[in-house]
Amino acid sequence: MTVLASALDTGGPDYAAHRAAMLDKLAALDAEHAKALAGGGEKYTARHKKRGKLLARERIELLVDPDSPFLELSPLAAWGSDYTVGASLVTGIGVVEGVECLITANDPTVRGGASNPWTLKKALRANEIAYANRLPVISLVESGGADLPSQKEIFIPGGALFRDLTRLSAAGIPTVAVVFGNSTAGGAYVPGMSDHAVMIRERSKVFLGGPPLVKMATGEESDDESLGGAEMHARTSGLADHYAVDEADAIRQARRIVARLNHRKAHPDPAFAEPPEYDPEELLGIVPGDLKTPFDPREVIARIVDGSDFDEFKPLYGTSLTTGWARLHGYPVGILANAQGVLFSAESQKAAQFIQLANQRDIPLVFLHNTTGYMVGREYEQGGIIKHGAMMINAVSNSKVPHLSVLMGASYGAGHYGMCGRAYDPRFLFAWPSAKSAVMGPQQLAGVLSIVARASAAAKGQPYDDEADAGLRALVEAQIESESLPMFLSGRLYDDGVIDPRDTRTVLGLCLSAIHTAPVEGARGGFGVFRM
For residues 253 and 62, is the Cβ–Cβ distance under 8 A? Predict the structure, then answer.
């Protein structure tokens, strides 16, 4: 056994300060998550329940297996926008009849479950996760369709939702739609394009155009039931495959559909996973409040991997990047974790080799971010930092094994790319409340703008206003700081959620289990040209 030794002083002042700072951030995060849980607010929630209907998360709770976890994804979608936090849609991974499924549920307490631009982005991300990991999709539908005032941002890209359902089906990934209320206009294609459709007596309303639209378009008088009710679709149109008497019956039938799918994981679940040697509670005190202060990522690794057992790769070379092999909830993983923040040429070459090894062995990669980017300066440019950084980014880009990313601290510049940021298609990406991500740090970015402005004034022979410069720098720093924070980035779906550090092992374990529903196969070549 190669158990990591911990040097974390849990009784020291630094640990206490780091823990206090993290708890403050978690309290702020909890307040934002509460907004998503509140949906459309007390008034609309009460009205929905008065109609005898379950809330979106209550439907999910009945759907998933008792006492099984539900990994909610992107709960802060639309944060900082004009739309309700959560984007009127709940998405996540849950176990139904022993099968891991990607579940989506419209929140009808938010403008009747209508889809806004952030709803669309969130739904498309969910479909992407389902496709990559071969997870059956269960759609719990109750939506009035597109939020019409924002139709210009929804209509054209929104067609991808229906395309995705057909592609999932074509790939042999089952899709199930359970209609709890309205599923109108474009939304009618969700049950229409799903493999299985469940509708509820006197509740489901599925039509391309409701009675008012039909009246305007054709002059025909009609009612909801004859036009698109569950009984009509079950008896006449054939759109409904299953007819339920109420919501509980619909959920029961959805569970039976999944039980009969004969959907199998490509890889069996591990039989046993040894817990870490160290208390995950201690993860709260590792990351400093000031990200300029380095921390040892081995302290994090020791608290998330099985038995705290970690075989380090090239421990004496490129020491600003820690790489090595471990198991996490029984699954083999390769880990890349930034130690001192900056990536030099040695770290870049080390990472590229390690990524290739993981691909040869079909082992998923976990990226733990705390990087300010690749090193700059004359010595490093002459030493080939560009070609070596490109080598690392090339390896990440063309790696075929699944990638999981966790932003613990800084994730700036091209270092964010080399460590498999969102643009590099990690299967899942999560952030801690301590994380920050941008093109560079606020002070550095403001300083660069100041230097450029000063040089421009000098070139024109004009005096430079130092007072205005100070004001501009302060303004830019404040803007970049606010746009670097995890809630801002999560609101734009640049991650799959901001998580409590103590939940990191559980979240990664759930993701690894989902990933292994699909085959895990690495690249055996095809990395392109590595500059030497």
Answer: no
